[in-house]
Design goal:
The protein is an alpha/beta fold. The protein folds into two domains: 4-254, Aldolase class I (TIM Barrel), CATH 3.20.20; 308-379, Arc Repressor Mutant, subunit A. Helices cover 43% and strands 22% of the residues. It contains 15 helices and 17 strands. It has helices at 30-48, 70-84, 103-112, 126-132, 138-150, 169-182, 199-204, 214-230, 249-255, 286-294, 308-319, 328-335, 339-352, 367-371, 373-379, and strands spanning 4-9, 11-12, 24-25, 55-62, 86-96, 116-122, 156-162, 186-191, 234-237, 240-242, 260-263, 268-271, 278-282, 300-305, 326-327, 356-358, 362-365. The radius of gyration is 21 Å and the shape is globular. It starts with a strand and ends with a helix. 40% of the residues are buried. The structure holds iron/sulfur cluster. The site of iron/sulfur cluster has 11 residues, from loops.
Length: 382
Amino acid sequence: MFSRLYIHIPFCRRKCHYCAFFSRENADGDLERYTELLQREMLLAAETTNPQQGLDSIYFGGGTPSLMEPQQISRLIDRAVELFGVAANAEITLEANPGTVDFQRLADFRQAGVTRLSLGIQSFDDRMLTALGRIHTADQAREAFRAARRANFANIGIDLIHALPGQTLNMWRSDLHQALHLAPEHLSIYGLTIEEDTPFAAKFIGDTPLLPDEELAACMFEAADTLLPAYGYEHYEIANYARAGFRSQHNSGYWKRDGYLGLGAGAHSYLRDSGYGTRFSNAADLDAFTTALHNDTLPRTDIMTIARVDAMAEFLFLGLRMSDGVLFKTFEQAFGAGLKQLFAQKIGVLLAQGLLTEDVSGIRLTLRGMLLSNQVFQQFLP
Ligand code: SF4
């Protein structure tokens, strides 16, 4: 069972220097061939797996989904409606790179049924954008945002990255203010991580004077946590801020462990079938993905039945990502046992370290706990 659909588009116009996501530069005909494959995968998946009562959200992620033609996105949405059913008020998100859209394309995406745009702006500083290898300037990013508003998008998110090479706290504050000036409904704030096998890894490993140190990166995280709520944004998840009523429904579903089906090369799925559910992923390899579908088989790998002990750990480290935290009542409903009863000692240590807070309803990360979230989550691993 699942209530959410994720569709991975593994193509980009050009790889950014920091990116380790599964995507490659697209060639002529790739997008149309891929649209056909996704439709085939959807059909095969629908023969064995059904959503609960229609989908609550669809998310086109990547890669660069906005490279797709609006009519290709429209065909995929229509096919999802036909095969799975889609709730009338479903959130349908498209990740968009500002260098790939103009007013007409955005209006056509809106017309195709996309209700929410997630704009990967990353920085409003052209020097930073060049260093990152982005294909757009800050002006193009602002123009894309304004065009999206004119194209009738009432729900737009902006992604920004901090702790960039050579970035100062003032430069980061300026990025935040420029984002606020556009008044998006949602902001995602990520810290740069240097991933293996990227041009950034070759450039920065072993020689990092240009990268902000941990203390400065923490100041940048805290600057967002101070500034954005003052402008009406709720810090509702470690990396995410939203105006009231505009939390990402799709991503909130991940943190609440809703079932989701992932389509496309490299996509992950979690089905809430019997027991504590099943996780699997599609081959992160376009050739293997294509061959499987041409043979009328689903390209699924790493199929894993979730044990109770793993489900508890997931419940905790996904739930704690959100400012709502983990409620004692919902944990007990899910597992028939008390959270404090099972994890008293670990919770006690994290409370003493100032990484968690507790009240009568449940436990939550403190701001310091958000900064050191991996340290907290490790405590709950089986
Ligand atoms: S556009 Fe996004 S997915 Fe594509 S290379 Fe850049 S960061 Fe990676």
